[in-house]
Structures are given as structure tokens and as C-alpha cells.
Amino acid sequence: MTKNYIFNLISNHTFFQHISKEEIHSVINSSSCCIKTFDSKINIYKAGEKIQSVGIILDGIVDIIHTSINGDETIVNRLTKGHTFGNCFSCVSNINNLNDIRSITFSTILFIDIYNLLKDSNFSYEFRINLFENIMSSLAQTNIALNTKIQILSQKTLRDKLITYFELLSIQNGSNKITIPFNREQLACYLGSERSSVCRELSKLKYDNIININKNNIVLLNQNIS
């Protein structure tokens, strides 16, 4: 990827709101910024590692994965092009990463060392204020995503977890037609369940005329299904 191509990818990113084109180019060319690629199923960060940089996904799919003491994996969140990760842990110096951050497909990541960038005297005071505000906005988005996951997992039954997940996607998209970003095994991992149980429950939801489903495409047939 050329630097001009990267600029075109990130210039409208929420992380760079109210930041001039010249300053974005300066960020890309600074020592606080680097680009790395990762093959599929490779950990970008492992649980327990120190995260010093925010990662912006330029291309690919990245999962945040929690592994239990028994080795069972749960997908905490799935991130795609334009999403960021490491926001929280790059802002604190005494807490290590809690989960694996894994490249699911071949991925290209832009890493930005926020701490070094904020203290870089080559950048204006206004730039640093705007960047700090954008970081706060990014942290808020991360918090919303985690609260959404809590809302889903707090449901008592797998059926209710699926319905809540679909309803939340429907609200986010403003449509009763949604596309889930997981295959069946990954969806089960996201919900902390088994693939067979998820497939069975999806079939029941279709039989009960609550959803229509075609692979990853779902139509909610009744918006008052909770």
C-alpha cells in the first residue's frame, strides 16, 4: 500500500476528525506510525501482552477472543475494515491486554503510538486536542460495543440471546433485514454456545415464523419479538 492510498483510506476515519490533511500526512510519515500485515489465524497481540499502539484495520477481519482456563474460546467482538482496537490498553501503562487479538483473514493494520504522538512537539497543540477528543470518542464506541455484548449475554436462554442479537443489529442498521458477520461456528463462539445448539435454535426461530434465514442473511418477521 502506498502512503497516498493509506491517506485515502483513513482521511475520513473518526480517529482523524477535525485534523487537517497536512497533519494526517505527517502522522503517516512519523515514527509513531507503522503498517504491518498478518496472515489468517495469526495473533496480532496475545493476552497478557502490553499494547502500546492503537490499531486501525485497513483491510481484513480481526477478532477479539477470550480463552478460558479450559481452553474454550469466545469471540468478544468482531472488527472489520475501519474499526480500531487497542484503544483502551494503549492509554494506560499498568494494565496488559486481557484477550487475544487475532487476524481472521489476511489483514493490513495501521499502528499508531498515541502516547508518542501526543507528546510530539512537531504537532500543534490544536492537533493534539483534536486527537485526544477523537480518542475519547473511540473509547466511547468501544464501551458501547461491550455493553451491547453484555446485553446479549445477559439473556437467560440461547433463543433470547439470538433474538436480542438480531434485534440490536436491526436497530443499528435501521432495517429488519440484517447480515450477520459470522458463520455458524463463529456465531456459537460469539454467544458462548455450541454450533449444534445454535443451528437447532435458528431452525426453531424460522419454524416459528420469527425470522427468515438464508445463509448469513436474516429477515426479522416481527419487530416485537422480545
Automatic annotation (TrEMBL):
Record-linked InterPro entries: cNMP-bd_dom, cNMP-bd_dom_sf, HTH_CRP, RmlC-like_jellyroll, WH_DNA-bd_sf
Record key words, sorted: DNA-binding, Kinase, Transcription, Transcription regulation, Transferase
Presence of keyword Transcription: yes
GO molecular function, one term: DNA binding
Domain HTH crp-type: 156-224
Classification via SUPFAM superfamilies: cAMP-binding domain-like, Winged helix' DNA-binding domain
SMART domains associated with the record: HTH_CRP (SM00419)
Alphabetized Pfam families for the sequence: cNMP_binding, HTH_Crp_2
Domain Cyclic nucleotide-binding: 15-86
One record GO biological process: regulation of DNA-templated transcription
Protein name (database record): cAMP-binding domain of CRP or a regulatory subunit of cAMP-dependent protein kinases
